[in-house]
């Protein structure tokens, strides 16, 4: 019943040649903000050492986090995950079931005490002693305490495990609680890393595991225990629609001209300006550029950000963290009335302003002049 693979041959790792595997690890290293040369070190660590044992606990969840790992189309990513770690226990992927599965979990925990990584998927119901989620006759609440106490580290995967997610939405009937809060309340000090998202990007999970295996510690975390390499920047900072935001070009309704032209989705409620994640860079499912919600025309709803996704109304405006709200930005695509277009005037004025070293002032004045102008750029 154990998900067991043949030992990894160094010249064929999860279907990749060693050279390609090192390249792959180098890409992950760069994504984590490490020097590119670290790729070889990561490749060495994960192929020479015994594969790290991983136990996966599923609580109140939808299996989306598992699906995102298995549905990736990047060459053999799911194989990389399954062959680079020793997945000892995972309810969805186990061959065995019932008592057999639980016996194996207990055996594996005993044999790998203090060495295994515990992945928690889903929030933990705490109301009424956790009776709203039971596995093999035990509550998820009891299992989390039992399994986390002997783990080397806990990875809370997805928004539900990281901060409550969907099950914790008001009125939170089951008392859904994130893994780190449950552990803290029970005095369990095993380090926890949160990888939020609904679903999270599988590369962020894989990078975290490889980092831990290679360097024997967790990557640098932010104040919400998220890896900085993945959650250090706002979505808004790397969004391909950002030039439209800066220029004041917005979609106002789904299907309008601005939406069809790929304008910024801020006015449709995009939460990119207050959500930290690397979605615009890592993309999803390797189906080419634009393979993420904003890329396909849907506003980011902040699924990875505590207090934003599943909390704020879908179309409420974001509260930008670092940028000036666009309502005071001048538009650059003006209605044409009579002679020269305002857009052309803006270019001329901009050039003149630059020549005088006063471009910013000129643009500001243009903005004031255009106040009240109607159109997709508002
Ligand atoms: Fe992209 Fe949303 Fe920011 Fe517009 S508001 S630039 S769509 S992240």
Overview of this protein structure:
The protein has 378 residues and is an alpha/beta fold. It has three domains: 1-49, no CATH class; 50-230, 3-Layer(aba) Sandwich (Rossmann fold), CATH 3.40.50.700; 235-377, Cytochrome-c3 hydrogenase, C-terminal domain (Cytochrome-c3 Hydrogenase, Chain A, domain 2). The protein has helices at 18-31, 38-48, 64-70, 77-84, 98-111, 140-149, 158-163, 179-185, 202-215, 228-231, 235-238, 242-247, 257-260, 279-282, 342-356, 359-369, and strands at residues 53-58, 86-90, 117-121, 124-125, 134-135, 138-139, 153-157, 176-177, 192-195. The chain has a five-stranded parallel sheet, sandwiched between helices. Strands 4-8 form a two-stranded antiparallel ribbon. The longest helix is centred in the last third of the chain and has 15 residues, at 342-356. It is globular and about 60 Å long. The N and C termini lie far apart (61 Å). The relative contact order is 0.10. The structure holds iron/sulfur cluster (SF4).
């Amino acid at each position: 019943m154990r998900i067991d693979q043949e030992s990894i041959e160094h010249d064929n790792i999860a279907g990749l040649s060693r050279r390609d595997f090192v390249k792959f690890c180098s890409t992950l290293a760069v994504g984590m903000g490490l020097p590119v040369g670290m790729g070889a070190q990561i490749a060495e660590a994960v192929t020479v050492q015994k594969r790290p044992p991983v136990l996966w606990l599923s609580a109140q969840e939808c299996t989306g986090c598992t699906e995102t790992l298995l549905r990736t189309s990047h060459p053999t990513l799911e194989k990389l995950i399954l062959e680079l770690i020793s997945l000892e226990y995972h309810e969805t992927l186990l061959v065995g079931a019932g008592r057999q599965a639980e016996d194996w979990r207990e055996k594996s925990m005993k044999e790998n005490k203090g060495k295994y990584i515990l992945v928690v998927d889903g929030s933990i119901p705490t109301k009424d002693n956790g009776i709203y989620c039971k596995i093999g006759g035990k509550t998820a609440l009891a299992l989390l305490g039992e399994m986390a106490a002997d783990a080397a580290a806990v990875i809370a995967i997805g928004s539900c495990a990281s901060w409550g997610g969907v099950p914790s939405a008001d009125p939170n009937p089951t008392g859904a609680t994130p893994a780190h809060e449950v552990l803290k309340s029970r005095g369990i000090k095993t380090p926890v890393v949160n990888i939020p998202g609904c679903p999270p990007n599988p590369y962020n999970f894989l990078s975290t595991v490889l980092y831990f295996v290679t360097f024997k510690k967790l990557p640098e975390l932010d104040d919400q225990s998220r890896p900085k390499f993945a959650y250090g920047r706002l979505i808004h900072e790397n969004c391909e629609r950002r030039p439209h935001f800066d220029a004041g070009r917005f979609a106002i309704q789904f299907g309008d001209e601005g939406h069809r032209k790929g304008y910024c989705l801020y006015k449709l409620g995009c939460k990119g300006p207050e959500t930290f994640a690397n979605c615009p860079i890592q993309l999803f499912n390797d189906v080419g550029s634009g393979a993420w919600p904003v890329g396909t025309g849907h506003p980011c709803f902040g699924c990875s950000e505590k207090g934003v996704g599943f909390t704020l109304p879908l179309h409420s405006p974001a509260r930008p963290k670092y940028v000036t709200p666009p309502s005071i930005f001048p538009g650059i695509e003006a209605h044409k009335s009579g002679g020269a277009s305002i857009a052309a005037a803006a270019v001329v004025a901009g050039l003149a302003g630059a020549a005088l070293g006063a471009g910013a002032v000129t643009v500001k004045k243009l903005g004031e002049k255009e106040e009240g102008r109607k159109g997709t750029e508002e």
